[in-house]
Design a protein that fits this description.
Helices cover 31% and strands 16% of the residues. By secondary structure, the chain is of the alpha+beta class. The chain has a single domain, classed as SMI1/KNR4-like, CATH 3.40.1580.10. The strands form 2 sheets. The chain has a 5-stranded antiparallel sheet with strand order 2-3-4-5-6. A two-stranded antiparallel sheet has the order 1-7. Helix 1 packs parallel to helix 5.
Length: 179
């Protein structure tokens, strides 16, 4: 799937804060779980940045706290737990590290959140997309690179993401400005 994504959404010539193969064991130990291999490969190739200046994935190799997977996990899950406690019927999945819990993956500029649903092995984790304020939720039974490839090919169906994003004539990954 990463090769398809590379064709549809070319990586930057020089990735900002790319993942390092020797850095993943420490990241996974800090998280308390393995991570999907496609996400690791994506992070190593693309680094930190945005898809269509709108959607970004958290990167555990980001130097600052904003967008760092390890920091965002705690921030996002604190809000998720609070919302779930107030509106238990609104959020279907428990928070990570509970079995099948959601683990924060990314965010959009609209405040929508992307999660992995941690059921089964990491390479089998689907992507959940929650609208800001958790009114709409979608489960996309595919790895994150397949999710991004479907977006880049205009084949992703979503009620959460804006129609203009889903129908763009072309899509682009842009590294964040240097920190």
């Amino acid at each position: 799937m990463l090769e398809r994504l590379r064709r549809l959404l070319p990586p930057p010539a020089e990735a900002l804060e790319p993942g390092r193969p020797d850095g993943w064991p420490a990241v996974e130990a800090a998280l308390g779980t393995g991570l999907p291999s496609d996400f690791k490969a994506f992070t190593e190739l693309y680094g930190s940045g945005k898809v269509d200046d709108f959607l970004y994935l958290f990167n555990p190799f980001t130097q600052g706290p904003d967008g760092n997977l390890l920091v965002e996990r705690d921030r996002v899950l604190a809000g998720y737990r609070q919302t779930r406690a107030r509106f238990p019927d609104r959020l279907a999945w428990p928070p990570f590290p509970e079995e099948g819990g959601v683990l924060p993956l990314g965010r959009t500029d609209n405040g929508d959140e992307l999660y992995w649903v941690t059921q089964g092995q990491p390479d089998d984790w689907p992507v959940a997309l929650l609208e800001a304020r958790a009114a709409l939720q979608e489960l996309h039974p595919m790895p994150v690179t397949a999710f991004l490839a479907a977006l880049a090919a205009n084949q992703l169906t979503s009620r959460v993401l804006p129609g203009a994003l889903l129908r763009r004539p072309s899509h682009q990954f842009t590294p964040f400005p240097d920190p």
